[in-house]
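Q: Hi! First time doing this. I have a protein sequence and I read that you can turn it into a structure. Is that right? Here it is:
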Amino acid sequence: MVIERLGGIDPLKNSQNTQKTNGKNASSTAPDSIAISDEAKEMAEIYFMNEVAAGTPDVRADRIAEVKEKIQDPQYLNAKTIASTADKIMESFGF
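A: Yes, that's right. Below is the predicted 3D structure, encoded as structure tokens:
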């Protein structure tokens, strides 16, 4: 289940919004400028990586299809394959 956000919580969106001002109303002739700190840039990069990670599927369908195809072959399931798989399972549990 995916819950969509109601409002935008995009830290980059707020810093990228610009408002056009009329040159007659400006009190200074110097152009406006903005400085983004290194911390803010790092936070924006982390936010972007989290969004990419959230959109990436956890399951590799191509690998699953490959394994299913191998299992269908009766010659694939032999004592050597079963022993190797059991060893890998035991290693993953730390035994």
